[in-house]
């Protein structure tokens, strides 16, 4: 019996290169990234892609009338069903372009939301994506459909007399957001219980972070033997995956693989995925994985540093920079990268694909974990049994003696351990 092929949607990617935008990226690089984004969505065939130079965006339709007509003919000839615009598109612009071109249109935020919807695997991830979708729809609703506002009759179950359609729709979205937030709170509480249970295991946490497609999942798989999705596509990982790993010294750590960062990540998603990225805040060491073969590796690194800073990852957490994908460099470039890395003791060069450099990197992780631990003396009263038990569960106590004042303990711990201890009151 013949199997039916999965229907494929023919898509065309446009990157508006707006000359008046002072922060604009290299147009060709931006287009390549947008095409990678499009390919990360199943069922899409990218039939073509192009940069569209623009002096400034046109308020009503983004592009000028001549360019719209030129693109209409091309999209028709290529039998395109979906246009992906790499940048923000207002609801009015979207409506006008869809009408002109007779196609469905997604802007950058809409596309990333679709990818996140497809990738989210855990209950928490699914809820976060649904909330992000609703937040995005709410902004489109407010700005897009004001021309459709009309007074409704006073149907008690729909809304009060004179409630406009847009207000009713907005209220429905807000109610759904409240419901989702409640569900998410329950899921987060469950995850916190799991995290507390894990905190009793005296394993430090090493979090892998980096720009999307930097090779974090490939590295994670090599170090843990786990079958985490590691395809060469953007946003391959959306939910943090954690595994225990034994370092060359014999010490055990928990390795955490997190969602990839990206420039111009929609604000709805930064907020929605904050909880997922909170795993990074619990880390003892943060490993910033970079695709050093990428032409915009430095710009990508700046984006990652900016997001880490906004999350509150400060100097109290040890950070290591891992320059990955050595296997993709030409010999001359490889020598230059090695020379640059040699000048910075916190930078290590590896290939997650071949395993080159990983032993040296793991030694550095071991060193970072031991370097950040300090010895301190504590005195706890006899009524402070809960905090004393926690110190022993975490394996932080080196010595203890008892007198009439209470328990005198010598502990070896990190700044994070101390902060957790102090928060217990």
Describe, in plain words, how this protein is organized in 3D.
By secondary structure, the chain is an alpha/beta fold. The protein is globular, with a radius of gyration of 26 Å. The longest helix has 35 residues, at 165-199. The protein has helices at residues 27-39, 65-77, 91-101, 108-119, 123-144, 165-199, 216-224, 267-272, 274-281, 297-311, 331-342, 358-371, 385-393, 415-423; strands at 9-18, 44-54, 82-85, 104-107, 205-210, 241-246, 252-257, 285-291, 318-324, 347-349, 374-380, 397-403, 406-413. A six-stranded mixed beta sheet has the order 6-7-5-8-9-10, with helices on both faces. Strands 2-1-3-4 form a four-stranded parallel beta sheet, with helices on both faces. Strands 11-13-12 form a three-stranded antiparallel beta sheet. It starts with 8 loop residues before the first strand and ends with a helix. Helices cover 44% and strands 20% of the residues.
List keywords for this structure.
425 residues, alpha/beta, 6-stranded mixed beta sheet, 4-stranded parallel beta sheet, 13 strands, 44% helix, 20% strand, globular
């Amino acid at each position: 019996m013949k199997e039916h092929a999965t229907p494929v949607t023919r898509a065309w990617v446009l990157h508006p290169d707006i000359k008046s935008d002072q922060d604009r990226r290299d147009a060709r690089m931006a287009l390549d990234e947008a095409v990678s984004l499009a390919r990360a969505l199943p069922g899409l065939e990218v039939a073509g892609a192009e940069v569209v130079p623009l002096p400034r965006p046109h308020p009503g339709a983004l592009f000028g009338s001549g360019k719209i007509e030129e693109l209409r003919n091309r999209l028709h000839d290529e039998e395109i069903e979906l246009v992906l615009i790499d940048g923000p598109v207002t609801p009015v612009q979207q409506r006008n372009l869809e009408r002109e071109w007779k196609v469905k249109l997604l802007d950058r935020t809409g596309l990333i939301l679709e990818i996140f919807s497809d990738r989210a695997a855990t209950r928490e991830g699914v809820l976060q994506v649904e909330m992000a979708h609703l937040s995005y729809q709410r902004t489109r609703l407010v700005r897009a459909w004001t021309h459709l506002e009309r007074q409704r009759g006073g149907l008690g179950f729909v809304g009060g007399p004179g409630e406009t359609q847009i207000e009713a729709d907005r209220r429905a979205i807000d109610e759904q957001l409240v419901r989702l937030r409640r569900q998410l709170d329950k899921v987060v509480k469950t995850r916190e219980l799991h995290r507390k249970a894990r905190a009793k295991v005296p394993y430090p946490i090493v979090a892998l972070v980096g720009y999307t497609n930097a090779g974090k999942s490939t590295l994670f798989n090599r170090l843990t033997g786990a079958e985490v999705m590691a395809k060469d596509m953007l946003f391959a990982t959306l939910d943090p995956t954690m595994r225990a790993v034994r370092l060359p010294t014999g010490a055990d750590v928990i390795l955490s693989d997190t969602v990839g960062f990206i420039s111009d990540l929609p604000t709805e998603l930064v907020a929605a995925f904050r909880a997922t990225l909170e795993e990074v805040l619990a880390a003892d060491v943060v490993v910033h994985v970079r695709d050093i073969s990428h032409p915009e590796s430095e710009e990508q690194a700046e984006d990652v540093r900016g997001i880490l800073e906004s999350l509150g990852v400060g100097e109290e957490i040890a950070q290591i920079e891992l320059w990955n994908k050595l296997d993709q460099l030409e010999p001359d470039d490889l020598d230059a990268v090695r020379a640059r890395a040699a000048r910075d003791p916190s930078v290590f060069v590896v290939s997650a694909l071949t395993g080159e450099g990983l032993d040296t990197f793991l030694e550095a992780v071991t060193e970072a974990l031991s370097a950040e631990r300090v010895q301190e003396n504590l005195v706890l009263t006899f009524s402070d049994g809960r905090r004393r038990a926690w110190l022993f569960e975490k394996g932080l106590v080196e010595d203890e003696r008892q007198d009439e004042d209470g328990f005198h303990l010598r502990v070896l711990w990190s700044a994070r351990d101390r902060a957790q201890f102090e928060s217990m009151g």
